Amino acid sequence: MTGAYQFLCAHASTESLRTRLNALGGWQWTIGDSHWYGDYVACQPFAGVRIRICDFPERVESEYRYRADVRRAADCKTEMAVVDAELRKVLSAIGARDVGEIEWFD
């Protein structure tokens, strides 16, 4: 697993994506801003894990392409396979499609 993903979904803004993610319950998503990656939503679902979904502006027909990355601290006890499976469940719950692994972009 690369720890980096891309997917398509109907949410046109970082704010609407965050609202939908938080409506699922469980993980708490916040909005951030990066000089390099622009707006993003992020959460810390497990100790030592950070998931970030970057809002690279790319429209694909009637949807939007987002890219996500996972960072695990060196002492993280949660296996990447667990993080991957749980993130995919969350993405499925927001209606994301064409979820796939990509090259690490951080």
Could you explain how this protein is built, in words?
- This protein is of the alpha+beta class and 106 residues long.
- Strands 1, 2, 3, 4, 5, 6 and 7 form a seven-stranded antiparallel sheet that branches.
- The two termini are 15 Å apart.
- The chain has a single domain, classed as Double Stranded RNA Binding Domain, CATH 3.30.160.
- It contains two helices and seven strands.
- Helices cover 23% and strands 38% of the residues.
What's the short story on this structure?
The protein has 106 residues and is of the alpha+beta class.
**What general outline do the C-alpha atoms trace?**
globular
What would you say the CATH architecture is?
Answer: 2-Layer Sandwich
Quick one: biggest sheet? 7 strands, antiparallel
Beta-strand proportion: 35-45%
How much helix, percentage-wise, in residues?
Answer: 10-25%
Average residue-wise pLDDT: 91
CATH level-3 fold name: Double Stranded RNA Binding Domain
Unreliable stretches (pLDDT < 50, length at least 5) are none
What structural keywords apply?
single chain, 106 residues, alpha+beta, 7-stranded antiparallel beta sheet
Give me the secondary-structure topology.
Blueprint: E1 4-9, H1 14-23, E2 30-34, E3 38-43, E4 49-54, E5 59-60, E6 63-72, H2 80-93, E7 97-101
Antiparallel strand pairs: 1-6, 1-7, 2-3, 3-4, 4-6, 5-6
